[in-house]
Amino acid sequence: MNIRILIADDHHVVRRGLVFFLRTQKGLEIVGEAANGKEAVEMAGSLKPDIILMDLVMPEMDGIEATRMIKKDQPEIKIMMLTSFSDQDHVIPALEAGASGYQLKDIQPDELVASIKKIISGENQLHPKATSHLLASLSNKNNSKKNLIEELTKRELDVLKEIAKGKSNKEIAAALFITEKTVKTHVSNLLAKLELADRTQAALYAVRNQLSD
Predict the structure, then answer these.
(1) Environment class of residue 83 by beta-carbon count within 10 Å: exposed (0-12), middle (13-18) or buried (19+)?
(2) Are 51 and 24 in contact (CB under 8 A)?
(3) What distance in Å separates the CA atoms of residue 44 and residue 153, rounded to the nearest whole number?
(4) Do the beta carbons of residue 80 and residue 53 sit within 8 Å?
(5) Quick one: pLDDT band at residue 142, thresholds 50, 70, 90?
(6) What angle do CA 169, 174, 176 make, to 5 degrees?
(7) How far apart are CA 71 and CA 83, in angstroms?
(8) What per-residue confidence (pLDDT) applies to 123?
(9) Which of 28, 170, 172, 212 has its CA 20 to 30 A from that of 137?
């Protein structure tokens, strides 16, 4: 079975060059070409490719928004970003949108083919610059979470742990020997400090950060 590829790039010369090269490769089949993100979304729905080589900056709809829309409706389609941009402002949103790969346009032709095949087999393929940005972002997020937890008072932390057990304000008050009104105050404060919307998010947060017993 050939790997069915859709190419989305607004530069005609780049698009045709990719088509010409990839058609010479055994096991690869070009099923379509899109000149912008909007076309990519429409063609993904009608052509059902195995993988899309997606440019980032395109007219009408950029590659990140197109990726987000495609992955929402057809999560089985793999998407590899093929772009000239390697900065964090492009890399992180693309990966968060659901891209399985991120490569720069100066990639060697043989490496491109290898990356396509690896993505189809279930591996993520990231350019070293993209990988370093991703690791930095994850590290920053983890540090940010730790810092937020550190802002809680001991009593707020106690209340958060009780929320994670599914207890009501009344039950928390009884467990911690404080008034229900005080519990409500602590809940409001900890939600604000942790930037959470409600008790459900707080309980989830506590579990994720291993605060629940």
Answers:
(1) buried
(2) no
(3) 50
(4) yes
(5) low
(6) 90
(7) 19
(8) 75
(9) 212
Which of left, alpha, beta for 212 (phi over 0: left; psi -120 to 50: alpha)?
Answer: beta
Lowest mean pLDDT: which of 130-144, 160-174, 176-190, 196-210?
A: 130-144
Closest CA to 102 of 49, 64, 66, 153: 64
Q: Which pLDDT belongs to residue 126?
A: 74
Scanning the chain, the segments in alpha helix (DSSP H) are 12-22, 37-47, 63-73, 88-97, 109-120, 128-150, 154-164, 169-176, 180-194, 199-208
Contacts 24+ apart (CB under 8 A), 59-64: 59/10, 60/36, 61/36, 61/37, 62/37, 63/8, 63/37, 63/94, 64/90, 64/93, 64/94, 64/97
Q: What is the pLDDT of residue 89?
A: 76
For 80-133, the pLDDT digits (tens) are: 999 888 777 788 788 888 888 888 898 899 999 999 998 898 877 676 666 666
Residue whose C-alpha is closest to residue 107's, from 140, 69, 89, 80: 80
Strand partners, 5: 30, 51
How is residue 157 written in tokens?
Answer: 């932390």
3-state helix/strand/coil string of 198-211: CHHHHHHHHHHCCC
Amino acid at 203: A
Q: Per the structure block, which two tokens stand in for 32?
A: 């379509």
